[in-house]
Amino acid sequence: VELLLDEVYDTAFSGLEPGLSFSQTNMYRILQRRFLAIQLAMSGRFRCPSPCESERSAGAQAGNVFVPSCTSNGGYVPTQCQADGQCWCVDPTGKEIFGTRQHGGSPDCGAGVKDCTSERRQALSRLLSSPSGPVPSAKDSQTHSAPSPLSPCSPQIQQLLLGSLMESLSERSDLGDILAETIQGMFPSGAMALKALALASNPKRLQENLFGGKFLGNAGMFNFTGAVGVSGTLSFSQASLTNNQDLVKLISATLENVDFLSTLRQTILLSKAEDSTQLGELFRVLFESAQSGGAGCEREPSALYVPSCDDSGQYQEIQCQGSECWCVDPQGQEVTGSRSNGQRPRCPSRCERERAAAQKVKSGQAAGVEVFMPKCAEDGSYVALQCLGKSCFCQDLLGERHATIPVGQTVQCPPPLSPLPSPGPAPGSCSLAVAEVDQFQEEAERLVLLSNSSHVPLGYSYLLAEGLRLTSDELLHALSSSDQTTLLSDRLLSHSHSALRLAAHSTLRFYWQSQQAASVEERQSLLLGYQPYRPQCDAHRQWLPTQCHPST
User: Fold this and answer.
1) 3-state class of 2 per DSSP?
2) How far apart are CA 332 and CA 118, in angstroms?
3) Cα first-last separation, the chain
4) φ/ψ of residue 79, rounded to 5
5) Are 544 and 537 contacting, i.e. CB atoms less than 8 angstroms apart?
6) Could you list the mean pLDDT of each consecutive 10-residue stretch along the chain, which spans 552 residues?
7) Is residue 289 within 8 Å of 157, Cβ to Cβ?
8) Do residues 340 and 348 lie in contact, with contact meaning Cβ atoms separated by under 8 Å?
9) What is the pLDDT of residue 56?
10) In CATH, which of 3.40.640.10, 4.10.800.10, 3.20.20.60, 3.40.50.920 is domain 350-405?
């Protein structure tokens, strides 16, 4: 407590309205930044230890046979090994990938573990930072290939990053990562960063506002408090004092660099990242682009793939781009032969994945070596009775082993338990259509919000993401020709169900009518009176015989 509360100055934020909870107050944010400054001085990173780093520290202190290897960003290295020479591949969460363990050699775990969340942010950053304007022709793309001024891919920002920051510590390859972590740890959002920059009269005052005084500078000298000083009980035995001390001084100097603060402000404004709570990831992309000479800016927008992630940040099992969908493994790699057009593929089950991995392992083993190869049913679930040689056991649908059957005995495994029926009546086809339309409208609202924070028009972003480029004639005639209108909606929605197509088509017609309205009053009246089509169901969740579109 003394370490973190010592000499907290009154800052420019002190007069602001207090938050609803302590975690939203200025004092909490100052203490958080001070704690991360101590982390920087002790570990060289402006963040808390990752799960891999915590596991590595605990394993090393306990003298375990296996101590995980971590990347500089705190992730798990794809290939993990233990002291006796066994090595295996792991997924982004550190879980062993079945069938990859080897003794006396290192398995091929690929070029590296991809992070779904980071890959998605980078892809969206490239897509949404494209220059706005009409659809470029082939001739225009050849003559006007330069990025827009001060975009994240512009030479000005790259040169600024290289000139003012990177050369100051060229021997540190992880400087961009540490700066990104520092930005993420200091600013809860883009709006808070802009407010902090606006309230600071000079760069030094900004640092004092953020840390409640000269705490960051004191951390670089390992003199955290004036009261305790060098007599404190904090142990430095695990810290690389000289390197971390130089690093703290560098970060402190960077936060007082006028060019860096100008770049920070410009990037947030140009990227419309005021509401973003992930500034660190945005700047990580910029630093990587600057260090690689803009290599990440050369990708064609129409071919950009934006991965889908689940709530835990892992790759969703099915990935789609346009009308094509395919299955991926936990590392985001496409499953061979799973790509389909116009429908969602059936991805390999856990049993099928384990069987394929076991077949791969067996192909590299000597003849006669037994490798357990699970048996799978037609639907991909585990067969109840599994055997390895003469040893058999029972297995449930989740792959958990239960009863082991002694050699020579015949035992009937219990049938797998059926899932409990959900309470209430089964959903009818109408209620399913309602859910589909509601999901479509929610997705449309999310796209509109996303478009409002981008320079790129919503329609153009959607078409680019779908890999579909419209010609100038198609764009010009879309409003005036009913045939062209039908053609456009058919091309965009050819793989959708009829109820969803009608909901989307009615929405498109509304916007086209809105554009043709003669006055602002007519457009506002149309907006207030418009409701997209929504299926109407009876009490049994089935279709009513007569369907109505409320707005017509």
Assistant:
1) helix
2) 12
3) 67
4) -105, 120
5) yes
6) 64 60 81 88 87 92 90 87 86 83 78 67 58 38 38 52 49 72 87 87 84 81 59 57 80 82 80 77 71 50 68 84 82 84 84 84 74 87 86 82 72 62 65 85 70 58 49 42 43 49 60 65 65 80 82 58
7) no
8) no
9) 93
10) 4.10.800.10
Residue 444, number of CB atoms within 10 A of its CB: 15
**What pLDDT score was predicted for residue 169?**
43
Q: How many CB atoms lie within 10 A of CB 12?
A: 18
Q: Which residues of 400-437 are buried (b: 16+ CB within 10 A; e: fewer)?
A: eeeeebeeeeeeebeebeeeeeeeeeeeeebbebbebb
- Model pLDDT, residue 469: 45
Partnered with residue 382 across adjacent β-strands are 376
3-state secondary structure 138-164: HHHHHHCCCCCCCCCCCHHHHHHHHHH
The residues with which 340 forms a beta bridge, in sequence order, are 325
Asked if 147 and 299 touch (Cβ cutoff 8 Å), the reply is: no
Plot region of 344 (φ>0 → left; ψ -120 to 50 → alpha; else → beta): beta
CATH architecture of the domain with range 51-103: Irregular (4.10)
Residues of the chain within CATH 4.10.800.10 domain(s) are 51-103, 350-405
Residues 6+ apart with CB under 8 A from 413: 384, 385, 394, 395, 403
Which amino acid is present at 233?
T
Q: Per DSSP, which regions of 396-481 are E strands?
A: 401-405
Which residue reads 């860096």 in tokens? 260
Instruction: Name 433's Cβ contacts closer than 8 Å, sequence gap at least 6.
Output: 497, 499, 500, 535
Compute the 3-state secondary structure of the chain and give helix, strand, coil in percent, each to the nearest 5: 45, 10, 45
What one-character DSSP code corresponds to residue 238? T
- Residue 297 CB contacts under 8 Å (≥ 6 apart), including other chains: 126, 147, 152, 153, 289
